[in-house]
Amino acid sequence: MQIIDLAEQTRLLGQVAPALETLRDDVRKVREGEILKPVREIAPFARRTQQLAMQCTQQLHDLSISQYAAIKDGRQNLAQLAGACAQVSLAATLCTLAINSRTEILLYEDADPNPAASRDNLRRAADEMDRARTTYRSLTQHLSGRLASAAARREDEQLIDRALVGPGITTAHSPAPSPASTASSPVPPNSPTSSPAPKTR
């Protein structure tokens, strides 16, 4: 278990919801247009969403190996956080699919010139961003509230102490070999490795 600064983690969690809100607004704005230049219009926020997904996944990893997993509701919160990370990643993929759906008219003669497929992918991306934003906001408020409460901090400190001294932290020691097992066994008289007796005259 790594001990990290949960106040700093709260700050990082709190940055995700506003970022997702901005991305969602950008997605909806492009979706309302004709999407005549899909790469130029969609790629900027698709890339930013991918970067945000990577940051979210990194924080999920950092929290999962820290004391956060030991505090009250920590494991349940990590499960929710993993789901939100997946939603952000899915939103980024949907944005990329929206580009692909619109550029098919440049590659195939029978492609649908209507941007309906791209709009649908962007709608789904905005929905995923909204769901993830709600989760991040809730988790930020939960962690912030526990850090602000002296009673909650004491409770979490006790839970962390128990986790630190739990059976998963101790290591088993193998019993020391007995002297009998390490002593050299005598070589039998008739053993092939025994030295021959000296001859007497």
Helix and strand layout, with pairings?
Elements: H1 6-31, H2 38-64, H3 74-103, H4 116-148, H5 150-164, H6 179-182
Helix pairs in contact: 1-2, 1-4, 2-3, 3-4, 4-5
Question: How would you describe this protein?
Answer:
This protein is mainly alpha-helical and 201 residues long. The protein has one domain. The protein contains six helices and no strands. The protein has helices spanning 6-31, 38-64, 74-103, 116-148, 150-164, 179-182. Helix 3 runs antiparallel to helix 4 (116-148). The protein is elongated and about 65 Å long. The termini are far apart. The model is unreliable at 168-201 (pLDDT under 50).
Stretches where pLDDT falls below 50 for ≥5 residues?
168-201
Helix content: 55-70%
Main beta-sheet strand count, sense and barrel state: none
Q: Average pLDDT across residues?
A: 84
Order of helices and strands: HHHHHH
Q: What is the approximate shape?
A: elongated
Counted up, domains total 1
C-alpha end-to-end distance = 78 Å
Number of strands: 0
What is the overall number of helices? 6
* Residue fraction in strands: under 5%
Structural class: mainly alpha
Radius of gyration of CA atoms, rounded to a whole number: 31 Å
Say what oligomer this is.
Answer: single chain
Structure described in brief:
It contains six helices and no strands. The protein is mainly alpha-helical and 201 residues long. The protein has one domain.
Characteristics:
disordered C terminus; mainly alpha
